[in-house]
Amino acid sequence: MVKKIKFGTDGWRGYIAGDYTFENVQRCTQGFATYLLNHGKQGEWVVVGHDKRFHSENFAATAAEVLAGNGLRVYLTDGATPTPVIAYSVVNRQATGAVNITASHNPPTDNGYKVRDEHGGAIPPEGLSEIESYIPNSADEVKRVSLDKALEDRKVQYFDPRPAYIEHLKGLIDLAPIRDAGLNIVFDAMWGNGATWFSSLLNGGKTHVFEIHNTRNPIFPEMARPEPIPPNIDVGLRTTVERQADVLIVTDGDADRLGIGDEHGKFINQLQAYALLAYYLLEVRGERGPIVKTLSTTSMLNKLGALYHVPVYETGVGFKYVAPKMLETDAMIGGEESGGYAFRGNVPERDGILAGLYLLDMMVRLKCKPSQLIDLLFSKVGAHYYDRIDTHFTGDRKSREASILAAHPATIGGLKVTGLDTMDGYKFNLEDGGWLLIRFSGTEPILRVYCETTAAERVKDILNSGLSIAGLK
Question: Tens digits of per-residue pLDDT, 56-73?
Fold first, then answer.
């Protein structure tokens, strides 16, 4: 029986040579092509790009062949390209959408498939469901032409997306003060698409960028996966201390997520990073506009919204919810707990490169090291502490969800439960303004337990309570 291809939190991901095969990439692309044609996009252009995982460039070529076989035209990147650069290329080239071959932060055994709309942003859930419905059960039903023939007929064209994106960046941020600031930066590319970007953008002045893990190696040595959180970034944190650097900047495998380490080699978590970026836009740049956040990210954003009189909108987890809400509200910033942040003036897509540059600009303008930025943030909104546990689970998901709903805890970690939000998972709101979230991953067979609280000593107890509620302890 043919396995149905389903889009999770951000696209379809699978085990290379297991369910992620050339035939299934063809099937998935046929579904996307049919979706575009049914929406009147015959003959329009689609951007196709890829990351540095095993066979990614060949999977991308396969996608291009199917799109061309369906009467669409393709701009195919001439090499591994960061996700935000692929997204911007859609707008810059006035394309109707994009296919991006990447599994982002997944383990090296996996690859993935993302689709984007004409804005360069994630397609909403209803659109993804429509695409799924068009995916044929057999590769025999796929229309395709060979890449050589498509190139000969100009139905597929290779292009270099870097120059247009770099020119676009210059309209969003002045890089000269960062180049001249004399910063000592360690950049960890996590063997991915972010390699050489920060060096090429920032070297040439007094600032120096030292890159690690910046070549192609699809088994991702020295990390379990290219996800910019500990322990995957421990080598980067140690290198920051060894080189007496001012900051560690990390991008994940496809460079749409950002990780940060301070000058002491301490990780600045994703919730702190998001609050810092929002504070930077509001206070340092004087911008105003809505903030869009997933329910799994920080309540510090709500406090900043109140302080600066801007609305805060909460969505389900994934940019398939965040991107449409950003477009609807003309949001100043949107983001999620995974370390992905998007900005007004750019495309509604996570951009680890721009987010990293904004963080560096904040350091330069405020003349602060990263640890001092955290102190400044906490002086505005109070201290907040966060952690997360990811665990594989066995058994039936529905019965486990029923058990979670039946728990009805009055307190969690010694704090009174003030409400339960089931928009995406099970979020128990707590009396200190913090929360516990129990949620099943949309891309892997993993259950995630997250929490945020205003007391560091409560974090462990809250997470343990979450595991108990989920029947995992």
Answer: 999 999 999 999 999 999
In whole angstroms, give the CA distance from residue 100 to residue 114. Answer: 5
- Following DSSP, what letter does each residue of 332-363 receive, concatenated? SEEE-TTSBEEEBTB-SS--HHHHHHHHHHHH
Spatial distance between the Cα atoms of 167 and 164, rounded to a whole number of angstroms? 5
Q: CA 99 to CA 65: how far, in whole Å?
A: 12
Per residue in 227-274, pLDDT (tens digit) is 999 999 999 999 999 999 999 999 999 999 999 999 999 999 999 999
- Spatial contact of 38 and 44, defined as CB atoms under 8 Å apart: no
Pair 413, 462: CB distance under 8 Å? yes
DSSP state of 282: I
Full set of structural domains in the chain with CATH: 12-162 (3.40.120.10), 171-381 (3.40.120.10), 385-469 (3.30.310.50)
Give the C-alpha distances (Å, rounded to integers) separating 397 from 135, 393, 439.
Answer: 25, 9, 11
Regarding pTM above 0.90, the answer is yes
Torsion of CA 122, 126, 128, 129, to 10 degrees: 170
Per-residue model confidence (pLDDT) at position 366 = 98
Running DSSP on this structure, what letter comes out for residue 71? T
Instruction: Give residue 302's pLDDT.
Output: 96
Query: Are 384 and 301 a contacting pair, CB within 8 Å?
Result: no
Task: Give the pLDDT confidence score for residue 420 in this predicted structure.
Answer: 93
